[in-house]
Amino acid sequence: MNQNLNLESFVERLYEEKKFPTDLEKEVIDQIKSDLLNQLEDRINAVIIGNLSTEKLEEFNTLLDADTADEQMQEFFLSAIPDLSQLIAAELLVFKQSYLA
Fold first, then answer.
1. How many CB atoms are located within 10 Å of the residue 11 CB?
2. What are the extents of the domains in the chain?
3. Which of 52, 64, 94, 99 is within CB 3.0–4.6 Å of 57 for a Cys-Cys bond?
4. Claim: this prediction has a pTM higher than 0.90
């Protein structure tokens, strides 16, 4: 939940920095932000999955099958990928640079 709020804030700042026309309809703005958030989540998920060992990937699949709570998944990822925060931060930076370019 907290991570999602942080991503939404990040997307909000990206939208503002992109300097879209001010006369866009609210529905269009909401769709842009939703698309950005989905793209960002996809890229973060790819970074996470790409940094799991084969053994941890199998463990992750087991957790998925068990419909594990989000908090437990976060704990799993933090223990499975020691530098997860840095990897996500780097991906956020790359995403921002490519989006604002």
1. 22
2. 2-100
3. 52
4. no
